[in-house]
Design a protein that fits this description.
alpha+beta; SH3 type barrels; 5-stranded antiparallel beta sheet
Length: 106
């Protein structure tokens, strides 16, 4: 009976911590391996650009017309079309609060 409690705790830890982390790593590896020229991507720093060239370890992103930056492929977090499909990421901006002079001089 005393051995059962640590085994249950280990199993719970595995399900809640280790397994989801392994899944995230697997998805990131698939993303990096599946990058193609022309993909619009988001980097770990939040920079958005279009891939114009790929090397073994680097992705060359065009972030503005004529401005190409080099990034490590592992710095790519998501494709834009995948990100746009995520309903949590697409939120409306909050309305701006009224200023006192617009409410009649309060």
């Amino acid at each position: 009976m005393q051995l059962l409690v640590p085994l249950i705790l280990f199993g719970l830890m595995w399900v809640l911590l280790v397994r989801p982390q392994k899944e995230r790593v697997r998805r990131q590896q698939q993303l990096v391996a599946g990058l193609e020229v022309g993909d619009e991507v988001i980097t770990a720093g939040g920079l958005v650009g279009r891939i114009v060239a790929l090397d073994d370890d680097e992705a060359h992103l065009e972030v503005a017309p004529g401005l190409v930056l080099r990034f490590l492929r592992i710095a790519v977090n998501a494709r834009m079309n995948d990100h746009a499909a995520n309903p949590v990421a697409r939120t409306e901006p909050a309305p701006e609060p009224e200023r006192a002079d617009e409410r009649g001089g309060e």
